[in-house]
Amino acid sequence: MKKSETQIGVIHAGFSYLLWGLLPIYWKLLDNVNAKEILANRVFWSFIFMVVVLFFSKKWGLFIRTFKGFAQNKKQMYALIIASLLISINWFIYIWAVNSGHMIEASLGYYINPLVSILLGMVVLKEKLSVSQYVSFVLAGIGVAIITISHGNFPWIAISLAVSFGIYGLAKKLINVDSVVGLTLETLVVAPIAAIYIVILFVNDSNAFLSEGIGTDLLLVGAGAATAVPLLYFAKGAQKIPLSLLGILQYIAPTITLLLGVFIYQEHFSKIQLLSFLFIWSALTIYSLSKTKLFPQSGLKVRGEKRT
Length: 308
What we know:
By secondary structure, this protein is mostly helical. It is about 80% helix and about 0% strand. The chain has one domain (about 5-290). Helix 1 runs antiparallel to helix 9 (about 215-240), helix 5 (about 105-125) runs parallel beside helix 12 (about 270-290) and helix 6 (about 130-150) runs antiparallel to helix 12 (about 270-290). The radius of gyration is 20 Å and the shape is globular.
């Protein structure tokens, strides 16, 4: 791979994670709107935006062929439905968490996510893990346990975000289609539900869209582009850089979100939370190093799933 291509890939992937990290600011601008209505508009306008992208990228033919293929392949069709539902659940929890003052816990979820993905790979795909990666799981588990014991409540927001996105990624592996076509299909599955919900809001005169002012309307419509653009840049970047480098870059987003929660939106960050995050960060450091040449892999394999 050429050095220039790698540099371009880093820029694209880094930009996508930067946008994801800053996305809570966007949702905060819509804190006057119910999270369910934000989600419905996000799904619906994401689908409309992706239809436009399909048109300009001249991928209609590929979309139709892929759609017909899903109709004939039940396994992929079910994977698509599961992926669509999971990403919708993930979006809803994240929007609700951000607008309810739980931005720090939301960032914790995306720190844990890579480890959840590896665990799913081990359990479901029978991949093997190195000793260092098992150590990272133990450290992450201690971090979650500290928050649970100290607060007396299980960090369900963080775990729900991590698990839903982890299983979503697993379902995406089974689908394996063009990124533009895939996102269009995912939003297509849930867009009718979103549209029906929006209509119900209008019928019950409880809608924020077209009733709270032009600023709110533009933000709700723009949620489609705010959702799709980072995903498209991520897809471009992921094609040009090694998976290990992509794994390190992914911590940009939750780090930005954490900093926003602490310093901009003044969420309380206790010493106990700091201790918990230190365990999580240590786990992620070991996990990241295990994917590079700094940690030799030979002789460290233990029983489990085969790495791909």
